[in-house]
């Protein structure tokens, strides 16, 4: 059986199609936000929140919730807002607060899982929450629709507020001076970041989410020079890499999350080289 | 007619005052230069006028149809990161954001406004260039064009010529003078260059331990003028 036939057989399974659709949408959200997060030096918040989401997941597991997404979503959004507020407070250093919350959530999450979990394979459970493993292939129908709905909202909000997000990202003081409610937009950015991270937990697991957010943007920034071009390009990179990653992982039987991130890294390499060649050509 | 009135203002950070008892009023069409030593609180005053921080005491009033959000601003050092990807066009257009309100996209009129402001500052041919690849003087023009998109009435400039060579500085001063004379835009400028301040300004505000507010004639006749100029 050659690769294509194998692929077509797999694509006949509905769960594979769901995985592809949800995966691509999540990747799209992550890359759109990535541009703002990287440029605002907020990428550490993304990292911290992914650990918070891990802690929330373990709480949900302890409570034996069948549908853990709403709880995880709430906890992560609240933490996102808290982190943003402490980040603005000049007295507590923002990055220290993030480090505290994220490491704390990781430790407590693992502890809770160990103490309360009835599952015989705790290490396996933890590993799959951290690295995603196959959860994207085992989504329930509700989770699929919830993911599709939430990503549509994230993408919609990003498009509607695109110009304002640009203004606030480029020069927050100027934006404030001309009457843009920068704090509200920061809050909006933090909230949709939290939502995206919770969605992305299923795709790549909590340790690898930052990669999904950061790599497409950094790749696009090597080559393109305007905000719009970088945004569009990083969205395309992310969608293509995620699709490739999911397909490869299905065919080769590799873990989904790490395969996607590896494809992202390769792509970054290509863009890095292209950028270097372009710049050399200009001289 | 007064456009901006500061009444017995005290400024500072975290409740600690750096400036106290500052009163002055700026009329339409004035060209005010704010001078004073490093760290005397000039940028702080400007940020307070812009509403980025609130005064510890006193009030800032805008009159004569001037809205608080109609102030164009040229920051001292843009905290724009070295690697921010943004084209000149995108940046200048973002100056129109204040007048958009909640409307998500720019109107045709706003795009024309940004085009005409780029033309006025001679940066039309740079509009698709990346901001971070421009020279310091070109960058200042881009930010001035953005400020002009935000206002037709009053410009606040924080050291617009710092880091520019004398030729480009002169061009910058000429552009600002033209905006003030021809377009009747009120200018409030922070400067360390007293001779330029005395040449172009109509009023001088000296802040520091001793304060002075008055026309430039009064300034050069006062003891400040004798010491500084
Ligand atoms: N964010 C801040 N928090 C606390 N203190 C500050 C802050 N920014 C400035 N200061 C202090 O306020 C004082 C005035 O600063 P400001 O930037 O207004 O000076 P300036 O007159 O603009 O100086 P320069 O000529 O160097 O631009 C300084 O002593 C500075 O240390
Ligand atoms: Mg200053």
Task: Describe the SSE topology.
The complex is a heterodimer of chains A (283) and B (229).
Chain A: H1 3-11, H2 14-39, H3 43-62, H4 69-88, H5 94-116, H6 122-131, H7 141-160, H8 162-170, H9 172-177, H10 182-204, H11 209-223, H12 227-252, H13 256-282
Helix pairs in contact in A: 2-7, 2-10, 2-11, 2-12, 3-4, 3-5, 3-10, 3-11, 4-5, 4-10, 7-10, 11-12, 11-13, 12-13
Chain B: E1 2-13, E2 16-27, E3 31-35, H1 42-49, E4 57-62, E5 71-74, H2 88-94, H3 97-100, H4 108-120, H5 136-150, E6 154-158, H6 166-181, E7 186-190, H7 194-200, E8 203-206, E9 212-215, H8 216-221, H9 223-228
Helix pairs in contact in B: 2-5, 4-5
Bound molecules: adenosine-5'-triphosphate and magnesium ion (MG).
Give a short overview.
Chain A is 83% helix and 0% strand. Chain A is mainly α and 283 residues long. In chain B, the strands form two sheets. Chain B has a six-stranded mixed β-sheet, with helices on both faces.
Could you describe the 3D structure shown?
The complex is a heterodimer of chains A (283) and B (229). Chain A has a single domain, classed as Orthogonal Bundle (ABC transporter involved in vitamin B12 uptake, BtuC). Helix content of chain A is 83%, strand content 0%. Chain A has helices spanning 3-11, 14-39, 43-62, 69-88, 94-116, 122-131, 141-160, 162-170, 172-177, 182-204, 209-223, 227-252, 256-282. The longest helix of chain A is centred in the last third of the chain and has 27 residues, at 256-282. The model of chain A has no long low-confidence stretch (mean pLDDT 85). With 229 residues, chain B is α/β, with parallel strands linked by helices. Helices cover 36% and strands 25% of the residues of chain B. Chain B is built from nine helices and nine strands. Chain B has helices spanning 42-49, 88-94, 97-100, 108-120, 136-150, 166-181, 194-200, 216-221, 223-228; strands at residues 2-13, 16-27, 31-35, 57-62, 71-74, 154-158, 186-190, 203-206, 212-215. In chain B, the strands form two sheets. Chain B has a six-stranded mixed sheet, sandwiched between helices. Chain B has a three-stranded antiparallel sheet with strand order 2-1-4, with helices on one face. In chain B, α2 runs parallel beside α5 and α4 packs across α5 (136-150). The longest helix of chain B has 16 residues, at 166-181. The mean pLDDT of chain B is 86. The chains are: A mainly alpha (283), B alpha/beta (229). Chain A binds chain B through residues 39, 41, 159-164, 166-167, 170-171, 173-180, 221, 224-230, and chain B through 47, 50-52, 67-69, 71, 73, 75, 78-81, 83-87, 89-91, 94-95, 97-98, 100, 104-106, 128-130, 133, 146, 150. The structure holds adenosine-5'-triphosphate and magnesium ion. Magnesium ion binds next to α1 of chain B.
